[in-house]
Amino acid sequence: MPRVSVEVDGVKYDDDVEPRLLLAHYLRDRLGKVGTPIGCDTSNCGACTVLLDGMSVKSCSVLAVQADGKDVTTIEGLGDGHGLHPLQQAFHEEHALQCGYCTPGMIMAALDLIRENPDPSDQEVREGLEGNLCRCTGYQNIVRAVRNAAGAMRQSPAQEEATR
Amino acid sequence: MTAAPEIGSARLRSEDAKLITGQTNWTDNIQLPGLLHVAFLRSPVSHARITRVDVEAARQRPGVVAAFSGADFADEQGSLPCAWPVTEDMVLPDHPPIAVDEVRYAGEPVAVVVARDRYAAADALEAIDVDYETLPAVLDMEEAIKEGADLVHSDKGTNQSYEWVFEAGDIDAAFRDAPVVIERRYIQQRLIPTAMEPRAVVCSVVGDEYTMWSATQIPHILRLMLATVTGIPEHRLRVIAPDVGGGFGSKLQVYSEEVICLLLARRLGRPVKWTESRSEGNASVHHGRDQIQRLSLAAEADGRIRGLKVDLLADMGAYLMLVTPGVPLLGAFMFNGIYKMDAYTFKCAGIFTTKTPTDAYRGAGRPEATFGIERLMDELANELSLDPLEVRRRNWITHEEFPYDTIAGLTYDSGNYEAATDKATELFDYDALRAEQAERRERQDPVQLGIGVSTFTEMCGLAPSRVLGSLAYGAGGWEHASVRVLPSGKVEVVTGSSAHGQGHETAWAQITADRLGVPFEDVRVLHGDTGISPKGMDTYGSRSLAVGGVALYNACDKVVEKAKRVAAHLLEADEKDIEFAGGSFSVRGVPDQTRSIQEISLATFAAHDLPEGFEPSLDSDATHDPDNFSFPHGTHLCAVEVDTETGFAKIRSYIAVDDVGKVVNPLIVEGQVHGGLAQGIAQALYEEAVYDADGNLTTTTMADYLVPSATDLPTFTTDRTETPATTNPLGVKGVGEAGTIASTPAVVNSIVDALRPYGVADVPMPCTPERVWRAIRGGGPEHSPRPGAGGGLGSAGGEA
């Protein structure tokens, strides 16, 4: 079995994995990083989105071996260990979640979106999150949360950097 | 000092903390020592006799612990329960959790594998050999009830499960010589609920004690039903619904996989886990809607309704599940909507097909009914050249007329349709949009503007037990709550209604904080575990607040009554003279002598000095059985731009003014409305479960079944009027389904309204660009794509 060396939320792991093992299952079943849920099997829903070397990927469509030598950030790695990341704070304040199943993926996708576009419009947020489905909120509060978080992150870029 | 009231305040949700940090306890997260993984082999065909199932090769695969066919469980798997036998002669076929002799829908379980991990289990499915002898698929309800039709259940001799009839008033008189009769046939397409969290089950056995974790809306009902099906005594089975990622009715069910996981744990003596993949879920989670509606409405020349005839065919799918047959009947009480009429008949036939079973999906019977009547009202307005709001005004129950006994036999306790409509039309700028519409029509703009109206009500807060009894429902409709006041004065609330996104933990703490005068932060809400919450009827039908919230309210009052006795004793006063406000007990006229509820709690715990005969506890519980349903209502207005050249319909603005009675948390209410709108709009524009001619579901993935994304939905404007319910002390009505019920007809009405000049009277749902385009080209006089006479749309012209 191939060996992968991967850093997840600041912790280094070396593991033998089946070549076909999905990153999502590696995170959940092998590492116990169950903060990243799985919502579909065709990479449409985005619930399993994580950052791979800072770029958002759907971890159900990445093999664990493809993460070899890379850095993975999940929802569990956000925040500075004490407080919430501005995106987490904004999702809470804007009531941008109900059941919360899509939320980890939505937040991770939004993080990448804001990295590319620090001041997105409503429409740009909607387009940027098109690959992440939510069944509870109708998206309106998610859009507001992401824009508010983007504003907060522009105000204090250091905090954004701390989560990278 | 009295704190600001919690009820009505936009508290941020306490449940968010775990959900935004990935600390959630989804069922699939659960790990147990020795946990085995389960995978199901499912029928790849719509209808077939099973002549052989060979699981031997699967058993030999590495990592496989066991593999079984349906025959291996034949003696113990029983039949999945249907708790709603709507008529005495209802045809109720056996429904084995794993098919034994015959499969009747693509996706039905045929065999099961248990292995060391999910990959090994999935691999082993490929080694199972099944021989199918194909039987005719039964897909079309109207064909299925014809003489000599192929049968879903050949031993039953019919594809009709039941016919249920309701009649009120003299319907013949209403239609006799009626100046206007509108007859329409509408299709409620089949939908897949698509909660974001796929279903999952974990089951463990220790000795003869069973624990099941399931992504379910109904831990209490599930426990009782599983005990009944498997013979495991109810008190030996604990069911836990941990964090549950949405339901929308799809997790209001007793599923094959739950029964089989329990039987596997029993047979193997090992804990097992099953997590569905989305593509197996789309085929095997129960579906929603799926009706053919044949509607006739008789009216006076001034638009006043005389009578309404409803004739439904409702697709049950292949089997009757927990409440399958009753779902369309909930519409029987709602087809009359908010309107007065002299006569009404409702007839519904439940039909078997070789498709996935249907059951409750957000709104359950009421969206279908509301769609029917609200579409008819627009047709009536068009027939009489009246504004659609005007024809509704001429028929609706006015606010002075409440309580109002409807033609369908319900008593609407309260409402104010005028106020909601006035607010909605003002926010929408109705007159300006009508002017723009006229102007676009005038200049034959290829992008036409449509305005859709939906003035709806719904019955929720399920439900008065006596009403459920009269409808042959298999259980009551009460809800339970208990309040535990801890020695430190902190409070634990236990509710029988468990949330899966609705925010109970926050809202219930708000109610408790107000009623007991304790800080919001001092209340913890527990739910979703039969070991913690011993009684409950669970979460569906927008019942949690109107039934469970009232149970909590009553339980809090009992705590206060108990505490009053202790306070009177400690303050050396007569109990009659004790006043309670803001968490503090005082003697009337002696305001400086007080005891806080926390002090009373501690005194009760110590029990050193209590009134004679006082049982040392403030803990209280209450079970509330409502006297009536509650009736949220509202007016929704949708403006849509329809590109007549491409058929693409884009919602430009959407106004929802809802009246859900008193609001405990406006933030949560707004969120529920948003999500409801998204699902109702999705039915109008995007979603449909599609079967091919052979009965294969072709929308098994999220690539095929179009749950809308952020770009597919507009920004909503939501507002409220507040007419308190008079049937409960909180004045609350319920909000879980209102948005879904109201929005589908608003959207379709807007599209049809845009296309009236093209002779379009209907567009079947979902109103995809192709369907809209075809309606334009096929719907007008002489099949002209041009609006009215002398049109000239250029590129939209040509062959129809």
What would you say this structure looks like, in words?
The complex is a heterodimer of chains A (164) and B (800). Chain A is α+β, with helices and mostly antiparallel strands. Helices cover 36% and strands 14% of the residues of chain A. Chain A starts with a strand and ends with a helix. The model of chain A has no long low-confidence stretch (mean pLDDT 95). With 800 residues, chain B is α+β, with helices and mostly antiparallel strands. Chain B has three domains: 31-135 and 196-246 and 251-283, Aldehyde Oxidoreductase, domain 3, CATH 3.90.1170; 364-460 and 629-777, Aldehyde Oxidoreductase, domain 4 (2-Layer Sandwich), CATH 3.30.365.10; 478-624, Aldehyde oxidase/xanthine dehydrogenase, molybdopterin binding domain (Aldehyde Oxidoreductase, domain 4). Helix content of chain B is 27%, strand content 24%. Chain B contains 20 helices and 28 strands. The N and C termini of chain B lie far apart (75 Å).
Annotation keywords:
heterodimer; A: 164 residues; alpha+beta; Ubiquitin-like (UB roll); DNA polymerase, domain 1; 2 domains; five-stranded mixed β-sheet; 5 strands; B: 800 residues; Aldehyde Oxidoreductase, domain 3; Aldehyde Oxidoreductase, domain 4; 3 domains; seven-stranded mixed β-sheet; globular; disordered C terminus
SSE arrangement of chain A, N to C: EEHEEEHHHHH
CATH topology of the largest domain in chain A: Ubiquitin-like (UB roll)
Largest sheet of chain A: 5 strands, mixed
Radius of gyration of chain A: 15 Å
Query: What is the CATH topology classification name of the largest domain in chain B?
Result: Aldehyde Oxidoreductase, domain 4
The outline of chain B comes out as globular
Oligomer: heterodimer
Weakly predicted, low-confidence segments of chain A: none
Question: How much of the polypeptide of chain A forms β-strand, as a percent range?
Answer: 5-15%
The secondary-structure class of chain B comes to: alpha+beta
What is the overall pLDDT average of chain A? 95
CATH homologous superfamily heading of the largest domain in chain A? Beta-grasp domain
Number of E strands of chain B: 28
Could you estimate the helical fraction of the residues of chain A in percent? 25-40%
Task: Report the major sheet of chain B.
Answer: 7 strands, mixed
